[in-house]
Amino acid sequence: MGMVSNNILIELEQVSFAYAPLRPVLRDLDFILEKGEHVSLLGANGSGKTTLFHLIMGLLMHYSGSLRVFGEERRVRKDFDEVRRRIGLLFQDSDDQLFSPTVAEDIAFGPFNLGKSREDVLWIVKETLAVLGLEGFEDRVTYKLSGGEKRLVALGTVLAMRPEVLLLDEPVIGLDEEHRNRFVNILKESNLSYIIISHDHDFLEEVTNKRYLLGGGRLQGA
Amino acid sequence: MLLQFPHSPVDGTAVIAEKLSEGSSPLHRLDPRVKLCLALPYAFLVALSESVAVSCAALALGIVLVAVARLKVGLVAARLRVLFLFILLLWITLPLSMPGTAVYTIGRLSVSLGGLQRALSISLKSTAIVLLVISLLGTSTVFSLAHGLSHFRLPKKLLYLFFLSYRYIYVIGVEYRRLRDAMRVRAFKPGTNIHTYRSYGYLIGMLLIRSFERSERIYHAMLCRGFQGRFYLLDHFHMHRRDIAFLLVMSLMLIGMGLWEWFLTISL
User: Fold this and answer.
1) DSSP A142
2) How many independent structural domains does chain A possess?
3) By the CB < 8 Å criterion, does A81 face chain B?
């Protein structure tokens, strides 16, 4: 394990995955994410982009091939505890991500799961909201937020866990100009490595410097 | 606390109305734990009470609390309307069906005194309970009640079932309306025919599947944030002097009503 280059965060080798037998979504896919990379993942609807994210997070199992995250082979449920602590996945629909009554509590959920103390969590909530530009949103009720605010808070719930990598699934779809710009700025200032699924070419142009196209179950550099 | 869906949900920003809980009256500002502590014993006492006098006292207390909470008359009336429909049914059926001394006879039907008394007692008691619950629990948001409940060592699973149902019932409602509108814009008009039944069947089936899939996504999102089966509470309520004072006064009145009820039953 010590042999592995420290710069490689995620490495997939010959990974295949199928929801139904004989109809593979991913076919012998190879992929590497290195530290500091800002990757965009393009591809037609149903080409397996979200599937790839869910495989990396351990939400889908039973793939063939090799999946190494942070230098270690990840195969059974327990292997993914560490992955989930260190990689943040932003879901397409923020309503899926925000389930707590108030903004503060939703942001606190992850840090609490990491075993942080109440004082630390309160501080993280405050700091996260400041990063999002949503100061004073602590007691707002999550489902009463606007679509744009919801997406930012959802990003906040992920950032609050201090991840090293972000996986963003259609992060700016449906956002207005202002919220979209805010999203871009947060990403640019974050210093994180990330992979973004999006069809918004202007957005990808702004925040990523490497492109992959997923088609026929494989990745091509684009 | 009755759920109402707004009519323009398109962007998902509209919400379930909790109009009764919007306000700044002394009752709105009370600790929800105090209100929860009182609502159940009061409801039990009134429901079990046999005397008209105690029921009237409870009704009076309910009216006073609604007034203190400064609830809009229209909102309270809307909630009572549902109750009164049931009560009306009782007034029609009970006097005619209960045996007892007849006060009035129409042909073969006789109106019994016992039936009238029972109908009156149920009307008083149910109205009193609804008013008490509206003024005590309706003045807190569902979420602060869920928070309050979490301090009572209830099973966590039940609590979060309550909590998440409330969180997502609106989302499911929006999904339902989206599907229904999709049917409407393709000229669907419900009628009494197989096509209508089948279409509604699809609609409900689709709604179930989508809700199930959503629950799975929510669970996944929770797993991704390190969920291990434990929930944590960020906020803690603080009891103020006014909370304790309210709890004391209301408890004393509750005991008083209980004793009153007891004396009336043993003197009979």
Assistant:
1) G
2) 1
3) yes
Token pair belonging to B98 = 């209960």
Q: Are strands A64-69 and A72-73 parallel, antiparallel or unpaired?
A: antiparallel
The two beta strands, B102-106 and A210-215, are unpaired
Chain B residues with CB under 8 Å of A78 CB are none
Q: Write the pLDDT tens digit of every residue in A94-106.
A: 988 888 878 998 9
Q: Is residue A2 part of a domain?
A: no
The helix (H) or strand (E) run that includes residue A10 is strand A8-20
C-alpha B144: how far from its chain's center?
Answer: 15
Whether A145 and B13 lie within 8 Å, measured CB to CB: yes
Q: How many whole angstroms separate alpha carbon B163 and alpha carbon B141?
A: 11
**What's the CATH code of the domain at A148?**
3.40.50.300
The DSSP line for A180-203 is: HHHHHHHHHHH--EEEEE-S-HHH
3-state secondary structure of A215: strand
Measured CA to CA, the distance from residue A35 to residue B7 in angstroms comes to 48
ipTM for the assembly: 0.81
The SS3 assignment for A73 reads: strand
Nearest to A50 by CA among A89, A76, A96: A89
Distance CA B71, CA A98 (A): 31
The number of beta carbons lying within 10 Å of the beta carbon of residue A189 is 9
Report B:205-224 residues touching A (Cβ under 8 A). Answer: 214, 217-218, 220-224
Give the closest residue to A86 by CA, choosing from A12, A159, A184, A4: A159
DSSP bridge partners of A8? A34
- The number of residues making up chain A comes to 222
- Reply yes or no on whether the pLDDT at B7 is more than 70: no
Query: Which range of residues forms the domain containing residue A126?
Result: 8-221
| pLDDT tens digits, A130-188 | 999 999 998 888 878 999 999 999 999 999 999 999 999 999 998 999 999 999 999 99
- What ranges in A133-174 are assigned the alpha helix state H? 147-159
| B226 → closest Cβ in A95, A101, A114 | A114
* Residues shown for chain B: 268
